[in-house]
Amino acid sequence: MKDTRYTVVGAGLAGSLMSILLARQGGQVRVVERRSDPRSGLEMAGKSINLAISHRGLHALEQVGLRQEIMDQATPMRGRMIHATGGALIFQPYGTRAGHAIYSVSRGALNRALIQAAGREPGVHLDFDCVCRDVDLDSATVTVQDRSVQEVRQLQADAIVGADGAFSAVRSRMQRTDRFDYQQSYLTHGYKELTIPAATGGGFAMEPHALHIWPRGRFMMIALPNQDGSFTCTLFWPFTGDGCFDALTTSVQVMEFFGRVFPDAVSLIPDLAEQYLGHSINSLVTVRSRPWNHGERVVLVGDACHAVVPFYGQGANASFEDCVLLDRAMRDHPGDRAGAFSAYSAERSPHTDALADLAIANFVEMRDATASRFFRGRKRLERVLHRLAPGLFIPLYSMVTFTSVPYGEAVRQARRQWRVVILLMALVCLPALMALIGILVFLVRGM
Question: Quick one: which H or E segment has residue 214?
């Protein structure tokens, strides 16, 4: 769609990647972002400073030549390191092969790399400190307030890409149109971030190639490694009730609680109480919507159309995959933007709905089940089954994390696999059960 004019609202992960892909189709792209230019050295605030990148995200980065640059800044995590209540450390590998890993990367560094790449594209113009105030869907006009000069401008284009996050101004305007479905739900838990500094003398204070989890039933703490030797910790706790954010309001309460619930973490965070009391608490929201387009004029990507909670490590990966799939749909429908946008929306949205369900279910698994013997036994069984029949049995986590199988199809395939496993187990056990019954009948009759 050469020479098409696009306004991309949002220069986060999805918006910056999408602007590159549109420019490489020959589009003229203007990106508007309410935050300051991160290339100035300032972090783009608002979300976790760490995220996990895996196969889907790496594939998308490869499309724009950034895979190796990001991999050079990432730390591989080959599994979960469970910090049990008794102090034991239990390692649970992520994949079914030795090379399987997900990668911890700085959100700011990733976003900066994408924006720098977008800025190098001849067809991309970046406007920072520009707040989207209104959207005219039918004329593809965005009204922005440029905070740097206190000026209000109207930007008219052929199409708008809404990539402005879970509280999208573009989607908010689409919600006022007929037959637009929208659902927003919050978890009863929120999150707060802390930092475990690098060990004295440099290096990591814990195993660097793992995602650390302290599962404690109703709540948990996790930690992701950074290349400088530090870890970014995230507390996922209820807002109210036992073990909640509201219950800890003084340094004494913080130190007593951590000493009792996360004792091995206390010595790793010298300024624990100061960090805890000084850092904000954030909410966890799931957003579902459809359709993701308004004719040929507007289309949504990333959190703007499907925000998910972070517990499957797929938020950024799914947003990147959106961009690749939208780019593909536009190439498959040359000259038919409405057809491309509609096909992308119809084909993709059921799979991100499936991801939203997976992410919520995985929260329960991470905070509770990961510490149980049953969970560890099931994971071992999955690895054994995959080794015995790699073409017939692929664990759900592996399909989601290490392949491009659509999320909904991965869920369906996993269910089919387990039905077959249960059936085979029943067929194997049935002869033994019948033999046992026969022996019991013989013994009873002989008495």
Answer: strand 211-215
pLDDT at position 39: 87
Instruction: Answer for the pair 322, 301: CB distance below 8 angstroms, yes or no.
Output: yes
Contacts of 361 (CB under 8 A, 6+ apart): none
**pLDDT reading at 436 higher than 80:** no
Q: What is the 3-class SS of the chain, one letter each residue?
A: CCCCEEEEECCCHHHHHHHHHHHHCCCEEEEEECCCCHHHCCCCCCCCCEEEECHHHHHHHHHCCCHHHHHCCCEEECEEEEECCCCCEEEEECCCCCCCCEEEEEHHHHHHHHHHHHHHCCCEEEEECEEEEEEECCCCEEEEEECCCCEEEEEECCEEEECCCCCCHHHHHHCCCCCCEEEEEEEEEEEEEEEECCCCCCCCCCCCCCEEEEECCCCEEEEEECCCCCEEEEEEEECCCCCCHHHCCCHHHHHHHHHHHCHHHHCCCCCHHHHHHHCCCEEEEEEEEECCEECCCEEECCHHHHCCCHHHCCHHHHHHHHHHHHHHHHHHCCCCHHHHHHHHHHHHHHHHHHHHHHHHHHHHHHHCHHHCHHHHHHHHHHHHHHHHCCCCCCCHHHHHHHCCCCHHHHHHHHHHHHHHHHHHHHHHHHHHHHHHHHHHHHHHHHC
- What pTM was estimated for this model as a whole? 0.91
d(CA 410, CA 399): 6
Burial 210-219 (b: 16+ CB within 10 A, else e): bbbbbbbebb
* DSSP 8-state symbol, 280: P
Overall average pLDDT of the 106-118 stretch: 96
pLDDT, tens only, 54-81: 999 999 999 999 999 999 999 999 999 9
pLDDT in tens, 121-160: 999 999 999 999 999 999 999 999 998 888 999 999 999 9
Give the DSSP H or E segment for 20: helix 13-24
Distance between CA atoms of residues 416 and 377, nearest Å: 20
Residues in Cβ contact with 354 at an 8 Å cutoff, skipping those fewer than 6 apart: 407, 408, 410, 411
Q: Note whether 306 and 349 are within 8 A (CB).
A: yes
